[in-house]
Amino acid sequence: MNQLLAFKPRSRRQFFGGSLNRTLSGRSLLAVFTILCAGTCDALEPSSDWLGFRGDGRGVATAGPTTLAIGDDGNRAWKRSMPGRSVAGPVIVGDLVVSTSSSGPDEEDLFITGLNLSDGVTRWEQRFRATGRPYFHPTSANAAPSPASDGERIVAFFSSNDLACVSVDGQLLWYRGLGRDYPKTGNDVGMASSPVIAGDTVVVQVECQGDSFAAGIDLATGENLWRIQRPAMSNWSSPVALSTGSSSPTVILQSREDLIAVDARSGKVQWSFDEGRDAIASATVVGDRLLSPGGDLIAYRLTGKNETPTELWRENQLSPRNASVVSDGERLYSLKGSVLLRGDLETGEIVWKTRLSGLGSTWATPVVAEDRIYVFDQTGLGLIIQDGGDEAEITTKVQLEEGVLGTPALANGKLVVRSKTMLHCFK
């Protein structure tokens, strides 16, 4: 899975113009996604907060540090030890940073910790006991999914399928033991799909070889709104929420067997493709474009809430390895092993690709601010890559004390990175 990509693989890009509207078929693991844009599309201006996995789902912020350096003369503002291990990315709400952890012999002790973004001082911490199976791969942790926030509440999910909702001041609002409610869920290498907040609904993908399902849970009460069966196979990709201009957003679910769009509040299926997608990397929504990874990266034009999307192009070189694609609305970036590629969002053409010397296995999705791409690997090596337009250059290298598997957070010009047992803030 982590083998280095040959630098010049055979390209297999196809471009679809006009109003071609089709359902895909074939044996290769393709990528897809779709929906949105009923009336108006999501704004391309990044949020000032970082409210979930990849922030607003694109992995883009307005500003970030120009270098990464530790030591007396460095720009690491603070570093804090956390109460356990984690491979989950943090979220940022104003001056609050929230990170999850798990500890103990079987990592059955679960933590949600809120800290000041400004100085790293802990504001509050909630501790729970896992109610489901705390199984995970040795390189992972029970604290694997990234939390999500609506700006007022924080929803934290764990590999044991424990789901907790707390207020931004750390008060427990509700708790669900989905592993206890549905004891045949889980897999031996761990669950890692991050929850998404879509309007007033929390959507989770609990997909595995056993009792495989997706569910919509009321954000206010923690009660099930709907639950649908999903293909019985392991899946670590995360759901994607799409604003359709209606009172109920749409959520995209993908697996190695299908792709479906469901109404976030009712769970009603709006459309589906009976074809496998990527089970690790997640889709990316950028304005009226939806990018889906798989054997190819496929770009779709988003149309109406219940309308099948239109395929625009596909390019196999741009489909990522483990990390998801990020895009600012013009440029898209894809990481394949140690090779970073920039593509054109409109055409799927490759603008440049560069090998990132020294980069090891990567699970964290890159994040972007202005013309800078921030990449971290499993050893803790961090890079800043400067996008020069027609070429790229590594401008910064930093080696953290331990490995990074969770996607960093960017907000208010600061980069917050969760390593195995520590939280780091660069300014």
TrEMBL record:
Listed InterPro entries: PQQ_rpt_dom, Quinoprotein_ADH-like_sf, WD40/YVTN_repeat-like_dom_sf
Taxonomic superkingdom: Bacteria
SUPFAM superfamilies membership: Quinoprotein alcohol dehydrogenase-like (SSF50998)
Ranges in coiled-coil conformation: none
Gene3D superfamilies assigned to the protein according to its UniProt record, in alphabetical order: 2.40.10.480, YVTN repeat-like/Quinoprotein amine dehydrogenase
Domain Pyrrolo-quinoline quinone repeat residues, every copy: 60-272
Protein name: Outer membrane biogenesis protein BamB
Organism the protein comes from: Neorhodopirellula pilleata
